[in-house]
């Protein structure tokens, strides 16, 4: 896999390039009808239908630069999968504009799909009854990958993702984690500049997730591949993405750096500490106050949450260690899941 050039001239040229994905006022509506309940309602539906319009995506705008890894997150029904399907050319927008890698996805679909990679966590692009390596060979021919590039990429992918043990295994006999690693490798065999990932680690164990994350980091570092990642596992976002877009009910609520979201939206920090022995439990009441809560995690482990605007980390730690005997203590930021949940509940943009 060739390394991305890093000379001064190349860097200047790179920063002068337009965004690789540009979305302006993107809207998608679906026409359906309201179903009435019961037998009488079913009979009415046969003759009189009340048609309704559902707006899945409403005036969404964003741009993504070449080489960015962006997390695109939202609750079920928020509109993220609909957005990805429009970005990949599967769906035609009702309104707005998309330009991705120089193409309008739904209009230039034949050309466009040859230059992107797509992985949907619940669907495979591999042939179910043939060996993985045979699927790779078919994709090589479909995308017209040269023999040299194919051997080089397959060698790198096999090593990083540990594919060698089951390249000759039929896809239907693979575990979910093994299949997902093969699917991600398949999506990158033709070295696309843009990769769309929809729930790529869903249902995977910790080891499989870690292999996929490290592989994506390496591909991004070496090939400067642009990645748009949708997932419900926010640890994927924290591991891979510096930027996050939050969508809810078809509208973007936040678009910015992950660290910016934490700085602006986090309400509390937390300290996890382990008591030296059970005799210290009686002293817990002396370290709680207004804006501070302390919850038991196990026999000797407690998690203290505190309002970050009223208390500093140093104040809380000093209070704990001067009041209690502890064997370990760890300061943590508010989990990203709690921050995102607060954004959903508030519905506030920005």
Task: Give an overview of the whole structure.
- This protein is of the alpha/beta class.
- It folds into 2 domains: 8-262, P-loop containing nucleotide triphosphate hydrolases (Rossmann fold, 3-Layer(aba) Sandwich); 268-333, Alpha-Beta Plaits (2-Layer Sandwich).
- Helix content is 35%, strand content 27%.
- The chain has 12 helices and 13 strands.
- It has helices spanning 8-15, 38-47, 80-87, 109-112, 132-142, 147-161, 176-187, 206-223, 234-240, 258-265, 313-323, 336-346, and strands at residues 21-34, 50-64, 69-73, 95-100, 116-120, 194-198, 226-230, 243-248, 251-257, 268-275, 292-296, 301-307, 326-333.
- The chain has a 6-stranded mixed β-sheet with strand order 5-6-7-3-8-9, with helices on both faces. It has a 4-stranded antiparallel β-sheet with strand order 11-12-10-13, covered by helices on one side. Strands 2-1-4 form a 3-stranded antiparallel β-sheet.
- A hairpin with a 2-residue loop joins strand 8 (243-248) and strand 9.
- The two termini are 39 Å apart.
- Mean pLDDT is 88; it is low at 1-15.
List keywords for this structure.
350 residues, alpha/beta, Rossmann fold, Alpha-Beta Plaits, 2 domains, 6-stranded mixed sheet, 4-stranded antiparallel sheet, 12 helices, 13 strands, 35% helix, globular, disordered N terminus
The topology string of helices and strands comes to HEHEEHEHEHHHEHEHEEHEEEHEH
List segments where confidence is low: pLDDT < 50 over at least 5 consecutive residues: 1-15
CATH level 1 class label of the largest domain: Alpha Beta
Shape: globular
User: What would CATH call the homologous superfamily of the largest domain?
Assistant: P-loop containing nucleotide triphosphate hydrolases
Oligomeric assembly: single chain
Proportion of residues in extended strands: 25-35%
Strand adjacency order, main sheet? 5-6-7-3-8-9
Helix percent reads: 25-40%
The major pleated sheet works out as:
6 strands, mixed
């Amino acid at each position: 896999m060739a390394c991305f050039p890093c000379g001064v001239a190349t860097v200047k040229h790179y920063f002068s390039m337009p965004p690789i994905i540009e979305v302006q006022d993107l809207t998608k509506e679906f026409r359906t009808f309201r179903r009435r309940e019961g037998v009488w309602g079913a009979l009415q539906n046969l003759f009189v239908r009340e048609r309704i319009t559902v707006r899945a995506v409403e005036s969404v705008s964003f741009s993504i630069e070449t080489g960015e890894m962006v997390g695109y997150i939202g609750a079920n029904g928020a509109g993220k999968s609909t957005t990805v399907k429009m970005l990949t050319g599967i769906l035609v927008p009702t309104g707005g504009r998309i330009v991705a890698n120089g193409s309008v996805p739904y209009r230039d679909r034949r050309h466009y799909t040859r230059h992107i990679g797509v992985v949907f966590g619940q669907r495979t692009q591999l042939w179910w009854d043939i060996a993985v390596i045979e699927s790779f060979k078919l994709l090589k021919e479909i995308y017209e990958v040269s023999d040299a590039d194919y051997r080089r990429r397959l060698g790198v992918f096999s090593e990083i993702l540990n594919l060698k043990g089951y390249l000759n295994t039929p896809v239907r006999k693979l575990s979910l984690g093994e299949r997902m690693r093969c699917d991600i490798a398949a999506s990158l065999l033709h070295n696309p500049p843009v990769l769309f990932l929809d729930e790529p680690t869903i249902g995977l164990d910790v080891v499989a997730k870690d292999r996929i994350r490290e592989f994506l980091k390496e591909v991004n570092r070496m090939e400067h591949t642009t990645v748009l990642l949708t997932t419900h596992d926010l640890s994927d976002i924290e591991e891979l993405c510096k930027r996050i877009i939050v969508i809810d009910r078809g509208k973007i609520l936040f678009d910015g750096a992950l660290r910016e979201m934490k700085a602006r939206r986090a309400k509390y920090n937390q300290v996890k500490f382990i008591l030296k022995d059970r005799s210290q439990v009686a002293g817990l009441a002396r370290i709680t106050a207004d804006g501070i809560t302390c919850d038991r995690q196990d026999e000797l482990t407690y998690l203290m949450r505190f309002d970050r605007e009223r208390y500093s980390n140093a104040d809380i730690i000093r209070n704990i260690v001067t009041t209690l005997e502890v064997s370990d203590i760890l300061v943590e930021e508010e989990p990203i899941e709690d921050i995102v949940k607060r954004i959903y509940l508030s519905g506030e943009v920005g």
